[in-house]
Every structure is written in C-alpha cells, then in structure tokens.
Design brief:
Two copies of one chain form a homodimer. By secondary structure, chain A is of the alpha/beta class. The first copy, chain A, has two domains: 188 residues, 3-Layer(bba) Sandwich (FAD/NAD(P)-binding domain), CATH 3.50.50.100; 140 residues, 3-Layer(bba) Sandwich (FAD/NAD(P)-binding domain). Chain A is built from ten helices and 26 strands. The radius of gyration of chain A is 22 Å and the shape is globular. The model of chain A has no long low-confidence stretch (mean pLDDT 95). Chains A and B meet through α5 of A and α5 of B. Chains A, B: One of its GO terms (molecular function) is NAD(P)H dehydrogenase (quinone) activity.
C-alpha cells in the first residue's frame, strides 16, 4: 500500500474509546491514520448515568475529557456530529465536513426505543447522555419547587419510571435515595412523593436470577417504590400516563428506560439492520462490507442459543479488544481473531450500599454486591485512563 | 384587669419577630399572654433572599427556625395561615382555628404589586419567600438544562428582571455572578445568555445618589446586564415580554421586583388602607382602633415632607422597638413613645464584593460598601439571635 491507511472511528462511547486506546498502543508510527469522531469532547460512562440523573452524584464524575484519554500525536480527534455514512464512497459526512476512510468503526451507540407508545417520545425523559441526565435532575428538583407554590398539585411529586430492566432499576434505587434529601431541602412531606415502576414484562430484571430479583424488589419497595409489573404503558401525555389495565396516573415526570435500539444512521447507510443494529460476522465486520466494523449498541452478537446478547458496556469493551486487533491485523495482512463474549458477571445497584449480582459464578446481594459494583466501575476507569483516572473519578464514597 | 391581657402578633417577619423578642424580654411573668402566628415555622431574612434566588447562597442561610429564636415558655407560637382579621370581635380567624386578642400586632408583610400589567401575576416570579426563591433558582437551572436539549431555544437563556429598585438590582448582581458558573456546569457558551433589567422610572435605584447609581449600572453592565431604563413593561406572556416601545423579548423567565403593596387581609378587615397599607398614628396604632398596631410593609409612616417612607427591614426593626415599648406601657398604663424613623444608611449589593451605599453620611462603593453590607447583615442576626446566630448563619464567605 503506497498510502497510509485511514481508520475512522465513529463515536467515543465504550466501544469507540477503547478501540481508539488499543490502536494507539498497538500501531507503529505512521502505520495508520486514526481519527476519532464524537459529538462531545468528552466520553461518558453510560453505566454511571443513573446517579447524576437522580442527583446522587455530580455529572462531572460520569464523564472524562477525550483529550485526557487519547494521545493527540497518535490519534486525531474531531468533535462533530455524524450526518451520514456512505459505505460505497468510503466516506462519512459530518455536520461540518467529510472524512474518507479505508476502515470504518461504527460505535455510534443506541437510541431509546419507545415501541410506538403514543406520547412517550415527546414527553418522557431518557437516561442517555450527560445533557439528558442533567435535564432529568433539574426537572425533578423543579417539581419539588413548583409543588411548594401549588401544594394541591400532588402530581408534581409523582415520578414514573418506565422499564424495570437494568437502567430502570438502578435509576430507581438512586431516586429513592434522593427523595428524602429533596423532601428535607424543599420542606416537603415525604408522604406526598410517589415512585412508580411500570414494566410490561412478567418480571423485573428479566433474565436475572429470580431470588435476586425478589430481593431487589423488596429493597426498593421498602424505599417506597410501587411496582406495576406485567402491565404495559399505553400512553403518555404531558401530565399523565395510562396503563394497559386502564389506570391513569397523574404525573409530570416519566423517565423511560424500557428499550434501546441501534442507531438510525446505520439503517440510513443501507446496511442490513434490525432496529438499527447490525448482525456482525465473527470478526465484528459487516458481512459484505469487510472494511466496516461495528461495535457496541449498533452491533448484534448471537449467543450459543442463537439469540442476541443484550448490548452492554462489558460487551462493547470486550469487542474493542478483538476489533482493534483485527484492524491492526488487516493492515499488516496477518490473521484476524474471532470474537466470543465471555460474561464476567453482572451487578445491578439498588442505591447506596445495596446491589444484586452474579460474579465469579456466585450470587451476591447487599453490601458485597455493592462492593463488587464499585470494583467493576473502578476497573473500567483503569482500562481507559489508568491509575490517574481511577484516583480522579473514583469517588470513594 | 382581672384577666391576663392577650397579645396576638400576626407574622414573624422583621417587625413581628423583633416585637416578639422585645416583649419576651420586657414582660414580667404572667403580665401578658403573647401568641405569635406565622405561616411557616421559620423566620426568613427577606433582604437576603436575592442570593438563594440566584443560587449564589443556600436558602438555609436566609432562614431561622422560630423556635430557636423565641422562648416557648414566654411566647406561644402557632404555625398557621391568617384567613381574616375581625377588629370588631377582637378575633383573628386562622386556617385551623380562632384567636381572641386584647392587643393585635399586624406584621403580615407585603405582596407583589403588578400594577395591572397583563400576564405579570400569572407568569412572573417574585422574590418574596423561601419557597418562591427556591422556585426561581430551580427555574433558572432548569432553563439551562432544557437549552442543552433544544439548542435552538435561545429564549431559555434570556432572563428578564422587572424593576431596578433595591431588590431588582441586588438580584441582578447575584444572577450575573451565577451565570458563568451555570454556563460551566451545563457546558453552555456564555454568549448565549442575556440578562435584561427593565424599569419604568427614569433611573435605576430611584432616590439613590446619582453618582452611585451610575457606578452600579457600570458594574452590572460589565457583568453583561442590558438596562432598559425609563421603559415600562407592557405585557408578560408565558414566553415573552413586550415593552412600552413595542420591543418584544422572548423569554421563559421574568422576575418581577417592580413593586410591593401591603396585605389584602388589612383591606378586607375594613381598615382604611392604601394598597393594603395603613397610615398609623405616632404610636404605630390604627387611628380609631387603638388596640391594633401595624408594623412593616402593612404600615405607612410619613417623612417630614409628608411622603411615605419606603417600607424596609430597617424601618420595621425600628418600629418594633417602639411598638413593643408601647404594648408594655399600655398594659402597665404608663406613657407611650412616639415613633420617629432614623435612617442608619442604606447599602445595595451588586454581587460578590461589589456594592454601593450611604452610611454614616458617607458615600461608599466597591469593597468598602460590600463590607458595610455584611456588617448590616450580621447586625441583624445579632439583634434577633445574638452571637450564636451570627456564628451559625453569618457565612463569612
């Protein structure tokens, strides 16, 4: 090859940033031009967003400046929004420019899936970015302040979380912890506050060990959460929701965590996709487009039973290792690695010092699970930023 | 008198709380029954409210629990809202009960005066209580969070303060200090933020020394404030204001500080009142109702030119001394004191370390005025709570 190959990475989420860091380490000088594109100049730790959303932690602790992670001598960073991917032209159109590539990595992340439920897209909040969680936090605080002006408006203090999956449950744990503090700050009687969790599936945390799910629900019920499990959300308006059983709940605050889909840009690019997600080959490439890799929420990896794994941070980080290896191998014409997901366990937090999980083949609950959650969080900080980042963002509280 | 006389004090603002404290000190055991009625179980320091409103200080620093100030063995405290004053029955109707009195002290405070400007009452915010300033603070923060979701909505970041009197100017000083911090917190370009101050009178801070007014405006203009002086506000809608010269400013946030009137309850009680304020006699009683004293924003005291003094904290505190003396004298059948206001100076803050004022016959500006402001604040804390309160709330920042 007479020219240095150009690698473009779209998105600096888990998949994108770890891929960039691995390439930065593996590639030799002038072996490839690597460009990382991201909408913000920071990477955010999505699995941590439920805390700033509830206001139990500073959003600052859930993000890291990209330029503090990557080495700008080795990787170009472009802060821009991707508008279009043109695989046939091998180009990416940005809001303010165009990039050509020889290899493309799509790590654009997912979008909320509202399943066509009327009003949800317009009126619900979503835990998806630093901006969206700051809005949720401010929105919640604002309701307390408004209630003190209009004390007959109990609906201001009714909070509905749609979805009892991982994000929904973790957010509820934090919210339930925050409510007593908000009540104290705004002189509000805690009895006026209601938290509902609505889930269409027959259980909270589907796929989790039933004993642990039971434990989680009991912990959250004790904190004042009312569960509506096995009941679908039918409609969302600016000041209420309606459930499938006809019940109407007056509320100004719906946080929807009930679904994630892939990115519309991958559909618009003409790739074969299911809800914005692409089934990748064993090397994490798009079949028929061997120069395009997909990682994270936009990719589908099948488990041994032929069903897609849920897209998680853990999945994206593991993909990044293989993906970066395969990119380097492609450039060097050496052999590619196949990807195989290996679950290292899963822990869901339920607020301060409470969690449930499976790790190293063992069921964990309470303080030990919460400790494991902290270790997982710190491990990720270590992966992307080493000891300095652990010390800076590790919030040992 | 065969029965112990009953004194009822309505309102625990500056006038009410200082009256109660003076009575507590002066009255002998079983000389009178004193009952203090207040809507909240705390007294708030109205002249400090512009800080928590802008978010530059904690609302906690602007209030004190009433039970920490009064001695419950000497004074009964009733947390309730006054519904009606019946001077002919010598009764006060509360939301949840009735009180009979021999002597009544009306210290119910004022209400915002909107001069019939359409939409102002419905859509503007007012700096008048702990609840209202918490709402302002949350409302402002919410606009920053909303802007990040809808970056085309520049009107979210336009803040209009109506009135360039004392409260308006002091609030603007704090708001201008807070904006850079909010911009940093929410990743907002400070150039998007606009602060307008609209005042119908031909000058800001009418009645103040023109040289000091000039200084104040320059300080605030440097902090980014745009003044519209001599231009009346014509209309306020949920998302705009219109000025008398036809200019429309798109905004979600109007804070109205342009006028204060007395309390509607004194009008409804049948007393002769002007905008809810009663012209009291030289002993601070209502002419024709010698058992009813009025203090603070509900009272009118004339200056030597026959014009009413503006109602201020300083005025109310001075009234309380004379009022308490006169109550005790009435009970003891000794002679009453006449009230005469004596200005001890006035300082308006313009944000951190900036102020203007007149004290001890001298013009002050900048750091020395700010220092004087701090001394005035601390002096008041000392008056109501002694050294312990000064230490607890004196926020030496």
């Amino acid at each position: 090859m007479s020219r240095i190959p150009r690698i473009v990475i779209l998105g600096a989420g888990y998949g994108g940033i770890v891929t960039a860091l691995r390439l930065q380490k593996e590639l030799n000088y002038n072996e490839a031009d690597v460009t990382l594109v991201n909408k913000h100049d920071y990477h955010y730790i999505t699995t941590h967003l439920h805390m700033p959303a509830a206001g139990t932690d500073d959003p600052q602790n859930a993000r890291v400046s990209i330029l503090k992670l990557i080495d700008e001598f080795k990787i170009d960073f472009v802060k821009s929004t991707v508008v279009q991917i043109r695989p046939n032209d091998k180009k990416v159109i940005l809001e303010d420019g165009t990039l050509s590539y020889d290899y493309l990595v799509i790590g654009l992340g997912g979008e909320p899936e509202t399943f066509g439920i009327p009003g949800l897209k317009e009126h619900a909040h979503f835990i998806r970015s630093i901006n969206s969680v700051r809005l949720i936090r401010e929105h919640i605080e604002y309701q307390f302040a408004r209630f003190k002006k209009e004390p007959h408006r109990k609906d201001y203090l009714t909070f509905v979380v749609g979805g009892a999956g991982f994000t929904g449950i973790e957010f509820i744990g934090e919210l339930a912890d925050r409510i007593p503090k908000l009540c104290k700050e705004f002189d509000v009687d805690p009895n006026h506050v209601k938290i509902y969790n609505v889930e269409a599936a027959p259980t909270a945390l589907p796929g989790f060990d039933p004993e642990l799910v039971q434990y989680a629900m009991e912990v959250l019920q004790k904190k004042g959460v009312t569960f509506k499990i096995g009941i679908a959300l039918k409609e969302c308006t600016p000041d209420s929701i309606t459930l499938a059983d006809g019940e109407e709940i007056k509320t100004q605050t719906v946080i929807w965590t009930g679904g994630v889909r892939g990115n519309r840009l991958v559909e618009e690019a003409g790739f074969e996709a299911m809800r914005g997600r692409i089934k990748v080959d064993e090397y994490l490439r798009i079949p028929g487009h061997e120069d395009v890799y997909v990682i994270g929420d936009c990719s589908i990896v099948m488990n041994e039973e032929g069903r897609p794994y849920p897209p998680t941070a853990q999945m994206a980080i593991q993909q990044a290792d293989v993906l970066a290896h395969n990119l380097v191998a492609s450039i060097r014409n050496s052999s590619l690695k196949t990807f195989k997901y290996e679950s290292k366990g899963t822990v869901a937090s339920l607020g301060k010092n409470e969690a449930i999980g499976i790790a190293m083949g063992r069921k964990l609950k309470g303080g030990s699970a919460a400790m494991m959650k902290k270790i997982i969080d710190l491990r990720y900080l270590y992966i992307i930023g080493g000891i300095p980042l652990v010390l800076r963002k590790g919030y040992f509280n």
